[in-house]
Amino acid sequence: MLSRLTRSQAVAVCALPVVALFVTAGFAPLPFSVAQPGMTANVLGENKGTAVISVSGATTRKTGGQLRMTTIEATGPDARVSLADVLDNWFRGDRAVMPRDSVYPSGDNVKEIEKHNAAQMRQSQDAAAQAALRYLHLSGDKVKVTLRLADVGGPSAGLLFTLGIIDKLDGDGSGGDLTGGRTIAGTGTITADGKVGAVGGVALKTQAARRDGASVFLVPKAECSDAKSELPKGLRLVPVTTLRGAVDALLALEKGKGPVPSC
Q1: Would the pLDDT of 184 be above 50?
Q2: Domains in the chain, start-ordered, CATH in brackets?
């Protein structure tokens, strides 16, 4: 009986349920996703053999440099993320533990999420085309833009799509590349009137950008602190809030004249 056990034995007996609880919690699924740097794609080039940006009704120019949209990869909505997984990845600079609802807010299964993300991508592409043509004072009735990017969903490539269209049609306005020959990466949503919106996972996206050769990263201004938290060496952050501001910053970098904003 417990009353006849020594003090140390009693503590050991009482600790057994606690240990069992922690062991169970260590392997029980938790409502988190583990994310890491994902693929990047040059919107001025091709993706899986198809041009990302195609234009009809206007003459396009040959571009130099790169404009790379960035992504993150996360464990799926059905993946079992345990306490052990959370603890293993929490302090890693190349991983992020995120609430599952922040990564997959749109449904409970893979098909629902893929459908939602595809719809967001289409809306983002439409807004990017409108924003670019409006910036260049071109008519959407005469100039048609088609954007194709396989296996990527969501709205966060909007800014880079828009800049890519502008570079294809107008460059820096004087025949040069908007990129100045650099590899520019970035992230951010876009509205038809040129406002840049915040996205998620920017600290991981900066790592993907640097891994793939970028030296400059365009980041929504509201996410500067997140972007700086794990900023890779050799990558310059340029905060933006509007399409006009993003273009002006790239022109200042290209020509070496005028202020370039920083986080």
Answers
A1: yes
A2: 37-74+110-255 (3.30.230.10)
